[in-house]
């Protein structure tokens, strides 16, 4: 089995008290608990509220579990409760009542972002101060890149790392990545639809046509609330073309971890650009919007065409996020007339790094001249990322060229520095 080591495992092992793991569905929460934490009891709460003992394979009612739980806590048993949010709200009070039991260990796992955020924001939250809250998201760009570099190299490494941040893809991946992705969507598109639907159900929201429309339009390149409002109004999904009416939807999608937002740099009034947090979901909704591929028979050739079209943009996002984490900077969007940057990273109050990503077989002299002219407008570090130096017809002036090998080294050095600093805490 292919396992990607994650820094979060160290944090979980380091903290010996009560823990709560939360995050979007299929981000590896249960896997982390099963393979990296010690436990004596493992309970899974079914959708109907019954509790499944995964070690004995017994099934019990909530009332039976309520009688069992206090005894296990008093016996200092290490207890895992997966999808605990499905239990009645009174269970939170029970947790609080027994949180004073010394040396007890309870590991709570939930796929609902809203519950975690509510517990974090409530002044008198039953779990506030008694549980170590850990968000489990997609795999860190640095971690997937360093680990996969043991198997594949060059262009394939970056493309595979871009999508294998989704833990559910890790075990099944076989190079080449583009063929693997094509096959995955051809056979498992309905699974991704069900994953999104389950996420909405768990969050307590209805997957309406407006939500679906937003996700499809974001996948189709619409990024601002103004662009999204116009697109949804033209499709008849909004009664008025009013960006303000979309804010509640965009806020919920962002809190659910489906969308992420970036600040537009240099604007007096705050303006944000929205994108899918997961390239896998972005590609899924692009295919849905273009071909309705989960409902209509869609050829492998059409799916492969979509993969080839979307992949370079996803690679740009991966590289920008990788460099942001490696250098401790924040991604922003630069909005200037006739100028769009693939990579724009901001420090405390100024741009620190800008760059272009050219994920293609050949970068010609004229294109390099335009890149030099564009990046020369910024007084900061300037980079050009390419799959290999061989694709360049000449060396760019005043710009640092980064290849997959350079990115691996940047990721490795950043991880080593981070792990060292965490070990010294």
TrEMBL record:
Domain AAA positions: 19-117
One Pfam family hit: AAA_14
Top-level lineage group: Archaea
InterPro entries registered for this protein in UniProt: AAA_14, P-loop_NTPase
Protein's name according to its UniProt entry: ATPase
Organism whose genome encodes this protein: Thermococcus radiotolerans
């Amino acid at each position: 089995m292919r396992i990607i080591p994650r820094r979060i495992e160290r944090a979980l092992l380091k903290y010996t008290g009560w823990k709560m793991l939360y995050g979007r569905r299929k981000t590896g929460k249960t896997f982390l608990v099963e393979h990296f934490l010690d436990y004596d009891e493992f309970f899974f709460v079914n959708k109907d509220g019954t509790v499944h003992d995964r070690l004995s394979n017994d099934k019990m009612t909530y009332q039976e579990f309520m009688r069992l739980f206090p005894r296990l806590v008093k016996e200092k048993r290490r207890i895992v409760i997966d999808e605990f949010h499905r239990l009645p709200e009174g269970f939170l009070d029970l947790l609080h009542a027994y949180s004073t039991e010394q040396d007890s260990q309870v590991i709570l796992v939930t796929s609902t972002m809203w519950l975690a955020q509510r517990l974090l924001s409530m002044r008198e939250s039953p779990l506030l101060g008694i549980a170590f809250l850990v968000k489990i998201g997609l795999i860190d760009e640095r971690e997937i890149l360093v680990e996969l570099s043991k198997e594949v190299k060059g262009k394939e490494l970056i493309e595979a790392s871009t999508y294998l941040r989704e833990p559910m893809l890790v075990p099944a991946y076989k190079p080449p990545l583009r063929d693997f992705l094509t096959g995955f969507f051809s056979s498992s598109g309905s699974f991704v639809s069900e994953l999104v639907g389950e996420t909405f159900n768990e969050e307590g929201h209805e997957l309406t046509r407006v939500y679906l429309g937003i996700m499809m339009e974001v996948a189709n390149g619409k990024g601002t609330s103004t662009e999204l409002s116009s697109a949804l109004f033209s499709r008849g999904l909004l009664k008025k073309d009013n960006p303000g009416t979309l804010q509640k939807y965009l806020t919920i999608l962002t809190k659910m971890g489906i969308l992420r937002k970036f600040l537009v740099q240099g604007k007096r009034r705050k303006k944000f650009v929205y994108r899918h947090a997961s390239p896998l979901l972005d590609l899924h909704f692009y295919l849905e919007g273009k071909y309705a591929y989960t409902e209509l028979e869609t050829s492998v050739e059409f799916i492969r065409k979509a993969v080839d079209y979307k992949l370079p943009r996803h690679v740009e996002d991966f590289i920008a996020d990788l460099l942001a984490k490696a250098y401790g900077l924040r991604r922003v969007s630069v909005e200037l007339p006739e100028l769009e940057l693939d990579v724009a990273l901001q420090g405390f109050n100024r741009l620190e790094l800008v760059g272009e990503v050219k994920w293609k077989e050949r970068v010609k002299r004229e294109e390099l001249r335009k890149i030099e002219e564009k990046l020369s407008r910024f007084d900061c570090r300037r980079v050009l990322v390419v799959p290999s130096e061989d694709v360049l017809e000449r060396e760019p002036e005043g710009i640092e060229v980064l290849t997959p090998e350079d990115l691996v080294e940047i990721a490795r050095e950043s991880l080593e520095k981070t792990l060292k600093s965490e070990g010294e805490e």
